[in-house]
Amino acid sequence: MGFLGLFFTAGALLLMFLTLLGGARNSRPLNEIFFLQVDTSNIPGAPSLSRWTFWEICAVTANGKNLCGSSYPDFPFDPPSHRNFDTTQNIPSAFIG
User: Fold this and answer.
1) Who's near 26: CB < 8 A, 6+ residues apart?
2) What is the pTM of this model?
3) Bridge partners of 20?
4) How confident is the model at residue 4 (pLDDT cuts 50, 70, 90)?
5) Cα(43)–Cα(20) distance, rounded to whole angstroms?
6) How large a percentage of the chain has pLDDT more than 70?
7) From the CA atom positions of the chain, what is the Rg in Å?
8) Is 20 helix (H, G, I), strand (E, B) or coil?
9) What is each CA distance from 63 to 25, 38, 60, in whole angstroms?
């Protein structure tokens, strides 16, 4: 039983480490770790495809790679706010409080 606990603890630490590193640099494999990918083509000022990472929102290039700017802690699921798209046009009503 001791080994099983150690195994799960090591797995949890690895996944937390990958979550924190995902989106921190725009290089492989870190730019392929993200929480959510959404088609944002109908939102004014937003890229056609967006990926939320721990650090920011990244646009997706034609070849499927992240196009991220400088890294800073982001507030991932707040599309209408000034931190993300700064508009409520074409944002689902569930996000507008």
Assistant:
1) 65, 66, 67, 68
2) 0.71
3) none
4) very high
5) 28
6) 93
7) 16
8) helix
9) 17, 16, 8
Classify the C-alpha dihedral 42-34-87-62 as positive or negative. Answer: negative
Q: Tokens for 38? A: 């959404």
pLDDT, tens digit (0-9, with 9 covering 90-100), for 13-35: 998 888 888 777 777 777 778 88
**Segment (H or E) for 50:** strand 49-52
Question: 């083509």: which residue's tokens?
Answer: 41
Q: Which amino acid is at 22?
A: G
**C-alpha–C-alpha distance, residues 69 and 28, integer Å:** 15
For residues 71 and 57, is the Cβ–Cβ distance under 8 A?
Answer: no
Per this entry, what is the length of the chain? Answer: 97
Beta bridge partners of 65: none
